[in-house]
Amino acid sequence: MSLPDDGPEHTAATGETVLRYHLCWKRRDLDGVMALYHPEIQYNDFFQNCTLGLSELRDYVRLSMPRQAGEALEHSDRIRVDGNTAFIQYQVTLRGGRGLVSFHASEAITVRGGLIWRVNEYASLVRQKADDSAGPSARPSVSRLGLSPRQLSFMADDLQDYFQRQQPYLDPELDLQRVATACGYSRNQMSYLLNQVLGQSFYRYVNQARLQHVLDALENTPQPVRIDELAFAAGFNSLSAFYRCFRQRTGLSPKAWIKQTESR
């Protein structure tokens, strides 16, 4: 005899299935995840504006899994189960934005006969600025690029790791195509990440890295020091761009900033 969709027995069975699903995903057990999908699975990704069936889900799931087993999502609530449906809410935080940038995501997972029959996944982009003001941004269109929030977080990590390890910003001729190629993405994907998700242009992102390089050098170089030499060595190709970037970041001129730090 089948269980009623809203009965306590069905709630317990749904919770067990969704917990197995979550653990397989966390352990990067792709076969285990796929085995829990119903043959007639309908996976609705409303962020990408797409619906996937069983034959399309393997690559989709593989690209969204953690890069290392045991990596955890930042859950904003416990898993809630009601009858044959479980509800999960979590947050994906991206590095490298202007302030805190994150996706707030939720999934409604419906179970039939011990298998996942339908998934409705939603996500909204939230940017929190330096003044702690926060609010949801308009949902950017990503269906053309096919990037999920998890994939965008991987891209942001790859971009920041590349800048930290290789310091490509030291080259005044650095361009977007070179960065995208080095990180393993297309130019359009990298442009979308920077402009639509992280909220800044490519050149602003690069100049912020150059400015941080100058600030680190100022803290570790005996005074007196030639500011213009540090700026050019960091990849700035004009002093006006450097001074503008410096004042936007610190609210001070380089000389005033040095004087302030020396008085601490």
TrEMBL record:
Provide the HTH araC/xylS-type domain boundaries.
149-260
What is one GO biological process annotated to this record? positive regulation of metabolic process
Q: Which Gene3D superfamilies match?
A: 3.10.450.50, Homeodomain-like
GO MF terms here are:
DNA-binding transcription factor activity; sequence-specific DNA binding
Keywords in alphabetical order, please. Answer: DNA-binding, Transcription, Transcription regulation
- The name on file for this protein is Transcriptional regulator, AraC family
Source organism? Pseudomonas abietaniphila
Q: What is the lineage of its organism?
A: Bacteria, Pseudomonadati, Pseudomonadota, Gammaproteobacteria, Pseudomonadales
